[in-house]
Amino acid sequence: MDEAHLEIGIGFHETQKKIFLGKGARFKIVAKGRRFGFTRGLAMFVILKMIAYPGISVLWVDTIYSNIERYFDRYFRPELKRLSLKMWNYNRNKSELKIQVDNKGTTSVLDLRSADRPENLEGFGYHLIIINEAGIVLKNRNLWQESILPMTLDYKAEVIIGGTPKGKKTKNNEKHLFFELFEKGLNDTTGRYKSYNFSSYDNPLIDPVEIDEMVKETSAHLRDQEVFGKFVDVSQGRIIKREWFKFFELHELARKKRLSKIQIWDTAGKTKQENDFSVCETWIESSDGYYLTNLFRERLEFPELKKKAIELFEQENPDQVWIEDKSSGTALIQELRRNTRIPIKEISAEKDKLEYVNACSPLIESGRVFLPFSAMWLDDFLAECEDFPGGEFDDQVDIMSKYLNEKKGRATDFNDFKINVIKRNETRNKKYSGYRK
Fold first, then answer.
1. N or C: which end of the chain has fewer CB within 10 A?
2. pLDDT-based confidence at 102, cuts 50/70/90?
3. What's the CATH number for 3-226?
């Protein structure tokens, strides 16, 4: 494909051209940092291919179905609007895009499929196959070997595999297929495979100052992965083990002495899919440990966030509500203090996420953190704990670690206080023991 095919007005930034307009390798593997512009570039590339080569069939594989709908509306539709409406049609029910290229009715077809619905990955042959978010999609090696790879054979498909790395190994301690293919592209001498590595800074459309801010907010452990698109060995960094947690039935709490009940919030600023969730956890402290009794996790705009905070407070009646004083959390603190009598405590992150989790992991390992057997959110919570720090999300783990560190710190201070009192009393008793005789 040459520059002449850019006549419909679609363009790539210079770094993207190395991937999409470069010739040679049939399999291209791209490890990149966040905000590189890879998904948008892929969408433009697919449209160009469908126009430049009438009658081709394209497969796009992504993580979840909701991503497909969002990506089409955000990245495909604005570029398709540059074309005549008679040229293209998108069937949302089938997740199928058709572009009629010439007067003969020759049509190029794009099938958009998700890894969470592998049954829809039908056994057709394709000329071009895209795997987006490969760090997540290729955790399932069988999906590649049994479904996707056979579909490359009929037409010797061009394949582009890319995303932000998710470690060198899976949670089963096997080599991650994305990393394996990336290594293959680095060492291939046949010209069939080629690997690319780009950082977030390689997108000239993003202000480097914004990326600097992202660097500051990303833990040192994950910075190479999330910003510079490098494969790191996060398997050795898996800090929390599922078997460390203890489990309980909610009715058992009635027999325990409650020392405190705390709700803790980590709020996200926006509801876009790529943004974090707003999370609220409700914890009860007892003499034998810490019980997570309720967990709320959702993407909310600020008005809904405020309503939910009030609703959860009235539902759980905690002694105090802790809110991280940043982003929308700052506004939430101000609003709740202005308009309610909810007892608010501001908290701040003085360490990065990894440090917080490292600090509280011995408490979990000691069997003093309890989770409810029957909670619908339990599996997702445990999976996030096990995947940390290499998982897609870490918001639930983050506020758990902040709560446990705060409580652990208070317990240490209280124990030190008790020890000092005992020592002071012992000294005083020795001093006055002679008078008692």
1. C
2. confident
3. 3.40.50.300
Closest CA to 262 of 313, 205, 195, 324: 313
Reading the block at residue 78, the tokens are 């604005």
Q: How large is the C-alpha radius of gyration of the chain?
A: 27
**Is the pTM value of this prediction over 0.85?**
no
Q: Which two tokens stand for residue 434?
A: 């002679």
Summarize pLDDT for 378-425 with one digit per residue, the tens.
999 999 998 887 788 899 999 999 999 998 766 543 343 333 433 434
Q: What is the pLDDT of residue 90?
A: 96
Model pLDDT, residue 397: 95
Q: Which residue has the tokens 């160009």?
A: 48
Helices (H) and strands (E) in the chain, counts: 14, 15
Per-domain boundaries in the chain? 3-226, 242-411
Q: What's the CA gap between 287 and 284, in Å, rounded? A: 10
- C-alpha dist (Å) from residue 124 to 54, 109, 153: 18, 12, 10
Q: Is the dihedral of CA 398, 400, 403, 404 positive or negative?
A: negative
Q: Are strands 258-266 and 344-347 parallel, antiparallel or unpaired?
A: unpaired
**Cis peptide preceding 118, ω within 30 of 0:** no
Distance CA 46, CA 135 (A): 21
Top-level class of domain 242-411: alpha beta
The H or E element containing residue 128 is: strand 128-131
158-163 and 258-266: which strand pairing?
Answer: unpaired
Buried b (16+ CB within 10 A) or exposed e, 73-96: eebbeebbeeeeeebbebeeeebe
Specify which residues 89 forms β-bridges with: 98
φ, ψ of residue 285 in degrees (nearest 5): -100, 125
Give Cα separations from 387 to 11, 76, 262, 393 (angstroms).
Answer: 37, 32, 26, 9
